[in-house]
Amino acid sequence: MLPDFCSFSLIADRGDPGLVDQLAEYYRALSKLAGVEHKYASAAVEHLQEAAASQGSIGGRSRRQKRGDDDPSIFKPDTIVAARVGAKADGYILATVISYNKLKGKYEVEDADPESTEDDRKRHFVPPKHVLRLPAETELIDSEYLKGTMVLAMFPQTTTFYPAIVHSVSRKRKNTEYNLRFEGDVNDQIRRVSAHYVVAAPWLTRGASP
Q1: Do residues 47 and 116 share a domain?
Q2: Considering the domain boundaries, does residue 56 fall inside one?
Q3: Are 150 and 199 in contact (CB under 8 A)?
Q4: I need a labelling partner for 80 at 20 to 30 A (CA). Which of 60, 91, 99, 121 fits?
Q5: 199 and 104, same structural domain?
Q6: Are residues 25 and 86 in the same domain?
Q7: pTM score, two decimals?
């Protein structure tokens, strides 16, 4: 244990060389101890600063994630989608994203049926794998489907999507349309559908049948 400052003064007053050397050793030990304490104190402060910065980053990220800003795979509210709401693999309807519920791991979507009033429109909770974002204007050229390709398309005059085979593509200045033959169509005729309402058949990309 190191002597206190009064003990140092008494040793110095005696003038004993041995005691003076002892005093010098005490000072060196004290200086070394202070240096060690300063080192650990500095390290502790640095660690606390890093922890505070990390907490701030995590907190900020959590707040942003609640809004879905940090995850581009999460569709934002008001995104127009095709959502599977039934048991059938091809049972998709036109819908609007209301929100994404992280606890449930599902989207809340609203049926876009124009015949329903705003108060009567049904809402459904749908897992992400059953929600397909419809192509934007800038994506229509890149997502063009060749003749003979099976797609999922919205049947004319409805808000329901059905499997269809691409017959041809009609390109116009303001819109691209597909001429499609829908599976199960009793009239077996070619129907024209805007490219905005045509997406890849999800059961083909997942290796399953409808």
Answers
A1: no
A2: yes
A3: no
A4: 60
A5: yes
A6: no
A7: 0.61
74 lies in a domain?
A: no
154-185 per-residue burial string, b: 16 or more CB within 10 A, e: under 16: bbeeebebbbbbbeeeeeeeeebbbebebeee
Query: Same structural domain for residues 181 and 94?
Result: yes
> Domain of 147: which CATH number?
2.30.30.140
* Token pair for 53: 């910065």
Instruction: Please check whether residues 39 and 108 belong to one and the same domain.
Output: no
Predicted confidence (pLDDT) per residue in 92-134, tens digit? 999 999 999 999 999 999 998 877 656 667 899 999 999 999 9
pLDDT per residue as tens digits for the range 123-182: 999 999 999 999 887 777 666 889 999 999 999 999 999 999 999 998 876 788 999 999
Domain count, the chain: 2
CA atoms within 13 A of residue 192's CA, in its CB half-sphere: 7
Range of the domain at 10: 5-67
